[in-house]
Amino acid sequence: MKNRIIIILIFIVSLTLDQISKYIIQTKMILHQSITISENFFHITYILNKGAAFGLFSNNSESFRTPFFIIVSIIAISGLLYFFIAFAKESRLNQIALTLILSGAVGNLVDRLTLGVVRDFIDVHWYDLHWPAFNFADTSICIGTGLLILNLYRQDLKKGL
Fold first, then answer.
1. Which residues contact 139 (CB under 8 A, 6 or more apart)?
2. 73 near 110, Cβ under 8 Å?
3. Catalytic residue among 18, 111, 123, 138
């Protein structure tokens, strides 16, 4: 029971952090406004991402993009729930990882359902070399994926592979 509460709290905190941060950015900044945090490294830059990661599919028509991303998101969320139920029972780290990935997927799906786009604002770069802007949902997905990879590596070490 305690484990279930922790997993639910991780989901709620991660999703809430994502949605509140996006709301604050949307209401306090104008589109494409950029605030320098660290001159040649980190800015807060408010953009609307019409595409997927790295802007993939952003040039497709909205009538294709929005339903496509909503369907893909629902399939991904369904798959994550299946993996959580089927394979993560015995591994707390896998439960946490899948919960983070799930909360990120839901966070970006909320944007797609309500706005048709995803709000991004974390802008990391090294001088003129820019990584595409992202948000806390994307961060949750990446951290969760990293934890899954780490746990797979740990399991391989235990098996002597």
1. 104, 122
2. no
3. 138
pLDDT at 99 over 80: yes
Q: pTM of the full predicted structure?
A: 0.90
Write out the two tokens for 120.
């991004």
* The predicted structure's pLDDT at residue 140: 98
Q: Considering 18, 111, 120, 123, which one is annotated as catalytic? A: 120
Rounded distance, CA 93 to CA 67, Å? Answer: 33
Is 111 catalytic? The answer is no
The answer to whether the CB of 98 falls within 8 A of the CB of 105 is no
Q: Is the pLDDT of residue 34 over 90?
A: yes
Instruction: List the end-to-end C-alpha distance of the chain, in Å, as a whole number.
Output: 34
Domain boundaries, the chain: 2-159
For 32-91, where are the alpha helices, taking DSSP H only?
A: 62-87
Degrees, nearest 5: CA angle 4-10-16: 135
Q: Is the pLDDT of residue 106 over 70?
A: yes
If you average pLDDT over residues 69-91, what whole number do you get? 90
120: annotated active-site residue? yes
